[in-house]
Every structure is written in structure tokens, then in C-alpha cells.
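We give the chain.
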Amino acid sequence: MKINFKKKYFHFNLSQSIKTSKKKIIFKHGWLIKLENKNKIGFGEISPLSQNNFKECQRQLIQIPPNLDESNLLQNVKSFHPCVQSALHTAMAELKGELILNDNNQFKNIDQTAILCDSHSIQEDLKIFISKNKSMTKPITLKWKVGIKDNNTEELLLEKVLNQIKNNIRLRIDANGAWSRRIAERWADILKGNENLDWLEQPLPEDDLEGLKALQKKIPVALDESLLKYPNLIEEWDGWQIRRPSQESNPIILMKELENKKGYRSISTSFETGIGRRIIYHLASLQLEGPTPKVPGLALKQIPKSSLFSSDAKLVWDNL
């Protein structure tokens, strides 16, 4: 099958910046791609998170010609960055009808996605959510980015947060690999048995697999950065996995995992446009139908309101 390949560059500022233990995210940029054969179209998004990865993807995109043959396209990009492969696999699967995206997603209200907070904002955010949602019966999930202030300050914040949260508030704590084993053990001891906690997310550096496995015996641990660096862990890690489709080389494999009712997967955004969000919403819907349903992390507060984030892929493409 002969395929036409097109790409478009995008750039946008987040409506709210995001501070992690490693960096501050103010904007996103990348490329949208379109594969076309006669009247069939597939869209994808190349959405790298770091500037180094952006430059690598940029160099590799130049190597992709405008006219392609299906038989060698995916084979020829196996050595490319996972973000490039992710977009091509997604677009090809849509083009061939192997991926039929459900546009009727349900992720529009506050209780349908985790709300992203950091150590500067969590107390105020928590106060607002509690006051606005006193009558809510569905749980609210907060994803708290830690490792931003010194640990003594954040432990005091943890004490205040635990004294404030109600039964209908779930808590995810994401260190982005910033903690030492000593600090991770302290937080695990404080939180052990806490019914509001979903998990500690990437509490230790991505390479400290031994420490992560030991910590998992005490408290629920979710891997994120470790999975991206060591994809084989997807088969080995029996705890929670934070899965970011646009950062994995082939999101169709994740789709099949969810269709086969694999548990302990949580879907998370990397701040994509409407084209990239289509498959994230689709996979999040599948996850909610599985054996371990959890609201996804979609960072809706951080995403601007514009046609770039429409669920209509053609509209996004045409207006860029």
C-alpha cells in the first residue's frame, strides 16, 4: 500500500505551568502527522517531553520521505525515538482500521481525571476542592508533585494534607525519581495503610530497580520513568504502571493489553494536542472497563481551550 506522509509543527503554552522535581514545564511543541492512502487517513502526534528528545525527533523526521510504502515504513523506523514510532504506529493503525477511536469520551468533569497539584499549590487546591464539592459522592483524585521543596517542608505539608482530606479524596504522590531510599522509606512508613492513597509514583530514581521492588513490598508503588527507560519492566512489574502512550514506541500494544483486561495500568498525559489526546482518552476508557479501574491523569487544568485541542482530528489538522 502506497502512503502519503505529511507533518505539521505545533507549539502552545500551557494554561498553567507545571513544576516537577526535575523541571518546570511552561510550553509544549512537537509535530502532528498524517498518513493518507486514497480516502483513508490516520493521524498521529510526536510529542517529546525534553528538548534533547525534540531535537532527536526533528533529525529523524527529516529522513521520512513524503511518499512511503507500508511494507517498509514501520520496519525502517525501529531505531527511531519512541515518540516518532508512537505517532507512526497510531496513524498506521487508524489508517488500516485496526484502531477505531471512540469520540464519546467521558473525561470532562472534575471527578473523571486526577487533578495535578504541586507543593506550592496543594493546600489551596485542596481547600477549594473540599469547599466546592462538599456534596459530591464520587471521589476526587489529587496527583501531588513532590520533591520540589525540601523534604522537611513537604513532610509537614503531608501531615496537613492528611488531616484535611476526606473519604472521597484519593491521593497520588509523584516524586519523579527525586527521593533517596531514606526519604522514600519515611513517606512509606507515614502512609502505610492509608486508605486515601492510590500509590507513590516513581519515588526513587529510574535506575534503582532494587530499591523500588523493596519499597513495593511496603506500599503501592507506580513506575513511570523506569518503564520508559526499561520497557521490559512492563512484563515484569506486577504493581501499578503509569503508561504514557505518546512516549511509548507502540501504543497499540498497550491497547491490546487493556482489551485483554490487564490490570494495574494507569493512563497519563504528556500534554498532547487534541490529536494525541484521542488515543489517550480511548485507552483511558478501556482502562476504566478493566479489573482495576482508576481515573486517568489528563491535566485538564493545564490545557488551553482552542481548536488545537478539539477531538476532531481533521479540525485540528486544518486549523494548524
